[in-house]
Amino acid sequence: MFNLKLFLFVLVLGAQLVAAAPCDIYASGGTPCVAAHSTTRALFNAYSGSLYQVQRGSDNTTTNIAPLSAGGVANAAAQDSFCAGTTCVISSIFDQTGRSNHLTQAPAGGATPGAGPDFLAAADGAPVTLNGQKVYGVFISPGTGYRNDKTNGIATGDAAEGLYAIFDGTHFNGGCCFDYGNAEVSANDTGPGHMEAIYFGTARAGAGAGSGPWVLADLEDGLFTGPNKSGSTASNPTITERFVTAILKGEPGNQWAIRGGNSQSGSLSTFYSGVRPNGYSPMSKEGAIILGIGGDNSDRSRGTFYEGVMTSGYPSDATENSVQANIVAAKYASIDDVSFVVSARA
Ligand SMILES: *[C@@H]1O[C@H](CO)[C@@H](O)[C@H](O)[C@H]1NC(C)=O
Ligand SMILES: *[C@@H]1O[C@H](CO)[C@@H](O)[C@H](O)[C@H]1NC(C)=O
Ligand SMILES: CC(=O)N[C@H]1CO[C@H](CO)[C@@H](O)[C@@H]1O
């Protein structure tokens, strides 16, 4: 008798054996990663360098956390050991592309004049599992932020780029702005079109359907679901998943898109694809990278980041769909689900 379950299992196993990591997939699609950030896993199959750095409170020393093997998940045990009996913060999130687009403590900006730099995330703030192995995400509470104002290869002006990020769909607020992506190099608001970053939360401007949270686009001077800033957008749903894959991309010719899906299963949906808001084409992207803050260092938001990339070129939907398949196969799960994961593997 034909065993459907066995057949699907072998199919999935086969897919995993040949599956490339997200940045291998983007490269195959002709839209290579120019920044790749994750505290949970390598985003290239061949990557075995440092993923992130932690600094401990007892003596202010640092250590770098690498994958357990090339292309693998982070060695969280190394963090636990280094941080035992003291506190630790995530001091750097390294760029895996070799372009040194690392994220470090964000300086004060136009929204926080005279303030010191932002806080760093508690290193143990967002434990989850990847295929049953514990790893840590980046837990952003208000006042926390990361930035790089001197990047290499990130889109500027109207140049094409794509982004994805995985967030905790249950950790958010309505403060501005839990973002990941392209922002001003001055940490000041320099006007419409100077940002192209993924936003996640319930800030009302440009809200989607329901009460949120939503995957929105922070294009500066507005969070957008599509061409318009205000009003509810039926195609941009309230996110209810524990892990959300959020996608934003833009290219010359007045074209951009927002997509999203459940990082644990299923495929991506396109929430918007079409023209830019009035006044946003051509774009004036500046090429800095932010995480957890707005382009002017607005830092009143909360959220959790697990991994994300920025590409050169406008990725095809098919490329992004393959990345989503890789994300699902990576098996993100909340720590509450660990007993399930372990027993399922036994
Ligand atoms: C760690 O660095 C901070 C900030 O520079 C300083 O205030 C603190 O005294 C240092 N702690 C130790 C144990 O060196
Ligand atoms: C940001 O704007 C403030 C206030 O306008 C200004 O003083 C500061 O020089 C600007 N910073 C940069 C890096 O341009
Ligand atoms: C209601 C509203 O403002 N709709 C506008 C949304 O954006 C498109 C494209 O710019 C306009 O044509 C609509 O009028």
UniProtKB/TrEMBL annotation:
One of the record's GO cellular component terms: extracellular region
Active site: residue positions: E220, D296
Broadest EC class assigned to this enzyme: hydrolase
Main location: secreted
Alpha-L-arabinofuranosidase B catalytic domain segment(s): 22-333
The protein's Enzyme Commission number: 3.2.1.55
Oxidoreductase as UniProt keyword: no
Keyword presence, Nucleus: no
Key words of the record: Carbohydrate metabolism, Disulfide bond, Glycosidase, Hydrolase, Polysaccharide degradation, Secreted, Signal, Xylan degradation
GO MF term (any one): alpha-L-arabinofuranosidase activity
Signal peptide region: 1-20
Domain of life of the native organism: Eukaryota
BP GO terms, sorted: arabinan catabolic process; L-arabinose metabolic process; pectin catabolic process; xylan catabolic process
Disulfide bridges in this chain: C23-C33, C83-C88, C176-C177
Catalytic activity field: Hydrolysis of terminal non-reducing alpha-L-arabinofuranoside residues in alpha-L-arabinosides
InterPro entries: A-L-arabinofuranosidase_B_cat, ABFB, ConA-like_dom_sf
Localisation per UniProt entry: Secreted
Protein family according to the UniProt entry: Belongs to the glycosyl hydrolase 54 family.
Protein name: Alpha-L-arabinofuranosidase
Originating species: Mycena alexandri
